[in-house]
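User: Before I run my own analysis I want an independent prediction to cross-check against. Here's the chain; please return only the structure tokens and, at the end, one sentence I can use as a sanity check.
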Amino acid sequence: MRAVKFAGAAVAAVIIVIALLLVVGIPSGFLTSTIASRVENATGYRLSIDGTTKVSLWPTLNVTLNDLTLQDPKDRSGITRLTVDSVQADMTLSSVWSGRPKISELIITHPVLYQPLLRERLPNANPSPMPAVPLGIDGASIDRIKVTDGEVAFSRVRDRVEGRISAIDADAVTSRDRKVDFTGTARAGENPIKFDIKATAPAAPIERQTVPVDFAIDMPSVLTSQLKGRAEMRLNGPIVMINSLSGTLGDGTFNGWASVDVASKPLVKVDLDFQRLAIPLSKSPESAATQPWSNAPIDVSGLNYIDAQIRVSANEAVIGEARLAPLALDAKLAGGVLKASTANLGAYDGQVSGEVILDATSGAPSFAMHSDLVGVRALPLLKGLADFDRIDGKLQAKLALRSAGTSQRALMANMQGTAFANFQDGAIRGINVAQMIRSLTTGTLSGWQDSQEQSTDLSQLSASFRIDKGQAVTTDLNLIGPLVRVTGAGTIALDTKMMGFRVEPKLVMTTEGQGRTSEPVGFGIPVMIQGPWSQPRIYPDMAGMLDNPDAAYAKLREMGKGLFGPDGAGLGNILGSFGLGGTAPSGGNAGSNPNPQTQQPGQNNLLGGPLGEAIGNLIQQGLSSGTGTGTARSRSLPASPATPEPQASPAPPAQENPPAAQQDSQPMNDVLRQLFNR
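Assistant: Structure tokens:
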């Protein structure tokens, strides 16, 4: 009886121990060496398990490994490695006993792959072929792999450069027919990524076997629509070859091929042909023109750690709101220098050719570009690329620019080169230049006096610029329109968005068009355009006239041909009456009208009517500005008397029908007294 009781107690104790082991788990540190040895034999990589290892039998057989590190034993630097917080494998006891473990779920928590960044491709970098690693190892199979909070960290300690692909959550499910569905999300910098990849895994070994792949990628901050496609992938040593690549991006289809060589420094080759390519650009805020350039650093150092050869062609390309057709772009990135070129790019009924070179090898990246535009419609091109909708017409331009800097402001401040632009047969939209010129007779203008209902037709608008240290200087600004002519010179400060121009406007007093025989009428007074290029101050400047009053008088005499009667007779009478050297025409040749009785009212008006008075106001306004701010260049001007001194004048010959009384203009009289005082 006592023996039976002892046996019953022993059995009860064993049952209790087994129950505890099933619930609590079996400490299995002795398994780590076996697991590490199996992994190294299968993959060629060394596995270190620095944390605890635990085996649980409830509710299923469960093995958990903590603090794992996987390294290449040939890598002495130890930079390339994979660390994992924990790995948990769930499997059935029956599959383990059969010698063919079937893992129902493998959970990998917080894996981090550390990858060094190389500036140069290493010679003979092709590694020896790795042992084949099929989806199942030694008969084992995995139904599902789940990755939570994964990361890929790229770094180069010498350059103090680091980048990460973080927040990787992925789920790979394998079916019985070896189809793999790999879905998940990640974040590259500030850009979220969502992916869905479907493939059919071949039987071992996978080397040199074709793997059909279907993929769908969403990157809302980079791509406006989903990138979908299919390809045939093949692994050839360290080179991943992607053939028969085709798919859609938005409403456009594409096809081509690609390859990635990961032996050392990655080398990416891409050749894609799009039916329609859409590249969105963020719109600048409306106040961007008035805001200074950003001092935020521009980081392009990542170009040093990857080489690429890219060719992209498209029947139609939409960049922002700009539409280009056709597009052929070739780009090569090697040693941190990116060269991109295009030839005969179709752009709005014209063609564009050019090349851009970006050098990221130094601390301050530099760029150089040259471009030719021929016959391009300016309005849609400028509106699409720069949201600028003021000028329309056929554009011909040549650009040769270079600069260096780590921010927008630095790039603009260091800009050098030349630029030429010529707009023909178009219009300046929203601005009436002729009306602006006339408005100067009443006061200084602030800004461009925009008006959506008005515009200035132009036959030609051209200027060439020489740029040095962000200062763009032109001496040949020329605007030709049916009713206005403007010539001038000035400087645009690219870094501060300021401008200073001295222009000479002329109004055309006829509507005969470009074939007219008469010359345009100039004010003879330079107009200054100074201040921010979005809202400059526009005013007449008298400093130049006051330096040479004789030349100014001659200019006014020339003006008189168009404003003050035939041959400037009216102006001559005015100046003669003031004793300023003007002589009235003598005899019967005083006017070109042979019949004074039928002379039109105002035809021999001393000031040419209201327009003459406007010119007087204009010059008076310039005098006010000149004497207040330009005294260093101005002559001393005596104050005009309140009452003009009487002057003797010969009695006019008696006429049967005297002409209408001539109108006088006090503003012009006052100005002439000040301007030509001798």
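Sanity check: Residues 71 and 463 are 63 Å apart (CA to CA).
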